[in-house]
Design brief:
about 350 residues, alpha/beta, Rossmann fold, UDP-galactose 4-epimerase, domain 1, seven-stranded parallel β-sheet, 12 helices, globular
Length: about 350
Amino acid sequence: MINWNGTQALVTGGASFIGSSLVDALVARGARVRVVDNLSSGRRENLQAHLDAGRIEFIEGDLLKAEVVATGVKGVQVVFHLAADHGGRGYVDLHQVECSTNLILDGMVFRAAHAAGVEKVVFASSGCVYPNNLQTRTDQELYLTEDLVRPPYDADNLYGWAKLMGELTLQAYYKQLGMKSAACRYFTVYGPRGVENHAVMAMIARAFIGEDPYEVWGTGEQIRNWTYIDDIVSGTILAAEKIDDGRAVNLGTMERIRVRDAAEEVLRTTRHKARIVTRPEMPTGPLNRVADNHLAKQLLGWEPKTMFVDGLHRTIDWYFSTKDRAQVRSILGRMLTER
């Protein structure tokens, strides 16, 4: 068990949606937090209150540079490695070369962490490590268990392959060199500070700007298990506290939500009356991706506390109270396939 009070923690990608939410939780627990982020998709404003109060250390830098990595891990006890070249489905489908750089990034961070004597690395992995061939039928009540990631591997695009290689690399560091680690397989995270290149946030943004007809990518029959940010953060910290041997654990709800049903709930909640049109030709991803979270319950005592509809309503309230319609209109088209 880690006593976070006074523990020196590094959060790579800590200005991002998930990263900054993790920073909030670590600061609240008394940790001394350092953030390294190149701000390619993260936002300084997500950390501004902590920066103004002097509660965290912030390094703006590219973790693909050895000197930045070495500075970041120096004197650190726990590394939360969330930095990655990533985006939503449109990005990971269309930007394979960019996502391939995560193979280099992860290796550099893990190697530097070991050289610096870091006690533990907690890695943000993804549901994208699961075999594509298992996720093709919407008529199947499928729950992905951790043991389904095994040879012959069939990860989702280069983004998923990089996450898988990160998991295997950390397991090797533990077995061969004794560096403690844990991998958290995040499933479709949403919530305040989320950005429009992910599905739920894009749905909310389309309603916010009054889009009509209202686009849904794919047929709308795809099934997901959107998981609220607070649950992801709590699970990540519990993994840091309770897993040492590099094993991977799913962090995701077991609610099965059809994409079209989520879109209809967004329209109902925002009172936006629009005709839904589906776009089957657009990037869609697997047809049926839902986590089994029994291992997280067993190892961490974790289970999600936020039902999808409740988290969605909170996220809509945040989005509508903080965003500017003209600005969202100007960026939404680009954000759907960029970061």
